[in-house]
Amino acid sequence: MDSVRIIKLKESVFADNDAKAEELRQKLKDKGCFLLNVMSSPGSGKTTVLTRLINSIKDDYKIAVMEADIDGDIDASDIIKNTGAEAIQLHTGGMCHLDAGMTATGLAEVVDEKPDIIFLENVGNLVCPAEFDTGASRNAVILSVPEGDDKPLKYPLMFEKADVVIVNKMDAISFFDFDLGVFENYLRARNKDCQIIPLSAKTGEGFNLLVDWLKSEVTDWREKDE
Amino acid sequence: MDSVRIIKLKESVFADNDAKAEELRQKLKDKGCFLLNVMSSPGSGKTTVLTRLINSIKDDYKIAVMEADIDGDIDASDIIKNTGAEAIQLHTGGMCHLDAGMTATGLAEVVDEKPDIIFLENVGNLVCPAEFDTGASRNAVILSVPEGDDKPLKYPLMFEKADVVIVNKMDAISFFDFDLGVFENYLRARNKDCQIIPLSAKTGEGFNLLVDWLKSEVTDWREKDE
């Protein structure tokens, strides 16, 4: 493989994906479905955050969830189903990310039921999912305290793409070398505008800020022509 | 993108990579350099494990380290350099994994100095690095306790490729829902033969087992025609 050939392949893949993402975004807007793309490392707590978030807002919104796994014998959608939300499990067949085409395929049926909010639990990976626009209304990144405060420097694209960065497992902060001020400085060097929400999905500490952020974004999105 | 086209591209890339990996493996064998490919999620403690490991064995072996980052303003190689080992920093230009060609390019100069052991700190990612043979003598996977005991089910290929699985941050196990027995069952369903070493790179608990494993593997590799 020479590097020039790789770059050309990637450019063509990205252009194709961007067009499909815009098409899906428009379809979702027409149906009134707000799509939140949730990205993180493996084990940062995506399912726990989503479960608590759904339970916090399910009386106000009709909710669906699509969970992507590269393979997976664990059916995380059982956990989600217990919240009462519509749950879709998508196996990516080894792919390390979701692209817009895969997202559109996975959502094809559920969109016709017009949920207010669809949560997309992307593949656990801080690298590749950042490169592919899924067609989402907003991008959320979850970083957990045990992963360390330097991650915006090591995985810059992921943090650049975030509309909100959730710092999870704050209940464990005394156990790890994680400085929230240092983290914020690193993050701000890459992303001046995103919301930063430290919380614990386990204890509920700080979680109301995430609920408020989401409600506000959904309202903004409904009112504006995005 | 239709899926058939993707698969064909991937197959050709993998075949090309496999040939380059074998070529590098032979070159390393000729020079007497044992290459350990270290893979994990972001934030599982690769650098901390490597630093303690190098300090434990540096009187017995000549050591070099190549660290791969997709970008990176943090120069982790400074931490490694403090151990006295030769340190190489490789920026992958956004790529989510190392392939054999990138590894060979990065190691070209250092191999001529004939280190006994080269540690390859791969990109923090539990998905893509598993797909590309780097030409390493052995593959190590680090999983940290806060990531959860279900990871062999969610990221099966990574755990299938491992010769050793290091369970790091064992000092924090009382803080998280991580059951070592459950983890071992999930792992064994995917990989019957790999060594499992629970330890804490922070406290040193269990670390002697990793040192013993590495020394034994280097001896085996030297004696056998691999």
Describe the protein.
Two copies of one chain form a homodimer. With about 230 residues, chain A is an alpha/beta fold. Helix content of chain A is about 40%, strand content about 20%. Chain A has a seven-stranded parallel beta sheet, sandwiched between helices. In chain A, α3 links the parallel β2 and β3. The first copy, chain A, is globular and about 45 Å long.
Largest interface: A-B, 41 and 41 residues
Largest sheet of chain A: 7 strands, parallel
Beta-strand portion of chain A reads: 15-25%
- Tell how many strands the DSSP assignment of chain A holds: 7
Q: What is the number of helical segments of chain A per DSSP (H or I, 4+ residues)?
A: 8
From the structure provided, what is the oligomeric state, counting identical versus distinct chains?
homodimer
Our Rg estimate of chain A from Cα atoms comes to 17 Å
Q: What is the structural class of chain A?
A: alpha/beta
What strand order characterises the main sheet of chain A? 3-2-4-1-5-6-7
**Per the principal axes of the C-alpha atoms, what is the gross shape of chain A?**
globular
Output the helix-strand order of chain A. HEHEHEHEEHHEHEH
Mean pLDDT of chain A: 90
Give the fraction of residues assigned to helices of chain A: 40-55%
* CA-CA gap between termini of chain A: 40 Å
List low-confidence stretches of chain A. 1-7
